[in-house]
Structures are given as C-alpha cells and as structure tokens.
Amino acid sequence: MAAAAAIGEGKGKERVCVTGAGGFAASWVVKLLLNNGYIVHGTVRDPSDESKNAHLKKLENALENLQLFKADLLDYNSVASAIAGCEGVFHVASPVPASKVPNPEEEMLKPAVDGTLNVLKACAEAKVRRVVVVSSCAAVRANPNWPKGKIMDENCWSDKDYCTDTENWYRLSKTLAESEALDFGEKNGLDVVTICPCLIIGPLLQSTVNASSSLLINLLKGASETVENKAHHIVDVRDVASALLLVYEKPEASGRYLCVSHRIKTCDLIDMIKRMYPNYNYPTNIVEVDDDEVTISSEKLQKLGWKFRPLEETLRDSVEYYKAAGLLE
Ligand SMILES: NC(=O)c1ccc[n+]([C@@H]2O[C@H](COP(=O)([O-])OP(=O)(O)OC[C@H]3O[C@@H](n4cnc5c(N)ncnc54)[C@H](OP(=O)(O)O)[C@@H]3O)[C@@H](O)[C@H]2O)c1
Fold first, then answer.
1. What is the model's pLDDT at position 4?
2. Cα(211) to centroid of ligand 1, in Å?
3. Which residues form the NAD-dependent epimerase/dehydratase domain (predicted)?
C-alpha cells in the first residue's frame, strides 16, 4: 500500500486521539497509527465490553502506546479528558445504524452533530494542531440540484431539506455534522479537515459485524434473492485509514476530501466475486432500476498522494476474513 508506506515516516511519539476506536474503520486507523509510532488515546463507550475492545489491545504496540478512555460523544467532559494532551484528533465515531431507528433525533442526529461539536470544542480547548473528521458520501450525493452527469467533487453537498423530506436521517446527520465541523473550524481558528468515504468494506479487526460489512456478507449469503442493479461506490477500509493519516500528516491538506476508489454496478460486483468464489448463494434475480448514474471523484485526495488497492484485493481479503470468522455459514 504505497500511501501507507510513504506516510508516518520520521514521526516521533506524537499523541493523537481516535474517537469510537473499537468501530470498523476506527480500528484500522488505530492500527495504522500504532504501526507508525503514534501514541493513541482511543475513546470507547464501554471499556469493559470485550466484544468491542479486545481486538484493540492485541494490536502491535498497543501495550505500550494505546490507552483507552471511556467517553460518550454527548458527554463533553469525557470527550475532553480523552483529547487533553493530544496534538491531533481523528473523529471517527458516529452512529451508523444497520436499519431504521425509532428516534432519529436522539439516536442519530444528536450524537453526530452535538457529538462532533463536543469533540471540536475539546480540540480547541486542548489546542490540537489538526482534527480529521470522518464524514461520508452521504453528505455529498443527496443533491437533486447537482447537474445530471456532472462528476461529483468536493463542491457537491447533500441537500439538508431533501434529506429531511426523504427521511434519510443518516445522510442528514452526516451533512449537518460535516458542515458544522468546517464552520466551527473557520470561526474558531481550528484546523479541521474532513474525509467523505463511500461504502467501506474490507477485512474486520473487531469481532462484531458493522452495517456496511453486512451488505457484502448478505450478498454472499443470498439473503435477498432480488437485488437492484445500481451503481456502488466502494473503498477499502485500509485505504480509508491511510487517507486519514495522509490528510493528517500533509501540512497542505485542507478542507474536504472525497474518498472513493471504485464504482461498480451490482451485477458486475456479483460477477467479480463469483469468478473468485463460484460456490456461494448469490442473488438470482437482478432487476434493472432507473439509476442516477452518479460518479464521485477522489481526484483531490489522489493529488495529495492517496493510493488505493484494486477492488479484487478488497473483495478477496473480505471474503477470506468472513470465511475464517464463520460469517458465511
Ligand atoms: N462503513 C461505511 O460504509 C461508511 C461510509 C462512509 C462513512 N462512514 C463513517 O465512518 C465512521 C465509522 O463508521 P464504521 O463503518 O466504522 O461504523 P461502526 O463500526 O458502527 O463504528 C461507529 C463507532 O461510533 C461509535 N459511536 C456511535 N455513537 C456514539 C456515541 N454517542 N458516543 C461515542 N461513540 C459512539 C460506536 O461506538 P460503540 O461501539 O460503542 O457503538 C462505534 O465505535 C462513521 O463516522 C461513519 O459515518 C462509514
């Protein structure tokens, strides 16, 4: 992985904080930081929950350089204690529900938006050098006014009213959190950089299955016989981690970065996995839909030096992990 090999070099023992450290993407960020000589403060909601945290303690260099802090995004003091003394922060934590939640305001919007503001206030208080906030393509692509056929770049924002009208609370939570984060940075002289990954897949470090991984697992298990042939934008979780470290370490990084590697339609995705693993129970009925044919570009991130791996490698490593973990039975 060229980007990961090039970053982190020459770093001393810099202290950084990763929020939601036990999650799918954050675990790979913690691993990459520990491999690159950082001292990491990881926030977790329940340090005694081994199912969510045990894997972190087993990471290389964790014994010496990883310290877990109990913190909830909505509890300012807990967040501030974890961030105190850090030079940098990777704010990854945010609710990513696998299905509809009964109370989106309390369960999604508040933790995403108020939680992000708590993190940023604590960063300002601790005089952190740079904060990298993980947003999402959910904050980009829900924009009915973007010209049809025009490649989506960092100038494209999801329309908040459209997200509300369509009751897409996840998209609304990420759009509000990211725009308020950039706004907070500008108003308070805090260096805030945001990253918007698309659908993240790849091998898991944690023992519980997160929402985006379950999408691929369900496809392999033929959980639904009928699927829509729509375009997916995919990025490997390890390439997301390297993107976060890249924008943290490159002094010239600024503003917003879309983080997308591959665009592939459901049909082609199934064909690609089938060629490697012919014997799974793939969906049999693929229906054509009126797809909006959106294309999202990561040119800005690539110009900064970001590299990503081929989709075949991501799929193979994911399936091998799922097999070994018994997730496909
Ligand atoms: N996966 C994707 O396809 C994708 C795509 C684009 C962007 N993203 C973004 O990437 C980030 C990580 O997502 P992921 O896929 O790694 O999801 P994940 O595995 O579900 O991780 C989410 C993390 O957020 C933490 N969290 C949620 N609410 C919290 C709260 N109130 N206080 C403290 N921590 C809280 C969770 O802690 P607990 O373990 O205690 O629940 C968990 O560690 C999120 O910001 C997400 O929006 C994900």
1. 36
2. 9
3. 16-254
Please indicate whether residue 52, judged by its CB atom, sits closer than 6 Å to ligand 1. Answer: yes
CATH architecture type of domain 2-209+232-262+292-308: 3-Layer(aba) Sandwich (3.40)
Dist. CA 59–CA 65, nearest whole Å: 10
Instruction: Please give the structure tokens belonging to residue 68.
Output: 């877990």
Place of tokens 């996995």: 273
Rounded CA-CA distance 324/312 in Å is 18
CA–CA separation, 218 and 197 (whole Å): 21
Q: Is 127 labeled as catalytic in the residue annotation?
A: no
Phi first, then psi: give them for residue 18, nearest 5 degrees.
-120, 120
Which pLDDT does position 198 carry in this prediction? 98
Q: What is the pLDDT of residue 223?
A: 67
Whether ligand 1 lies within 6 angstroms of the CB of 29 is answered as no
pLDDT in tens, 101-125: 889 999 999 999 999 999 999 999 9
- Per-domain boundaries in the chain: 2-209+232-262+292-308
Determine the Cα–Cα distance for residues 213 and 237; give it in Å rounded to an integer.
10
Please list the ranges in the chain whose pLDDT falls under 50.
Answer: 1-10
Measure the CA–CA gap between 104 and 243, rounded to whole angstroms. Answer: 29
Question: In angstroms, rounded to a whole number, what is the distance separating the alpha carbons of residues 144 and 285?
Answer: 29
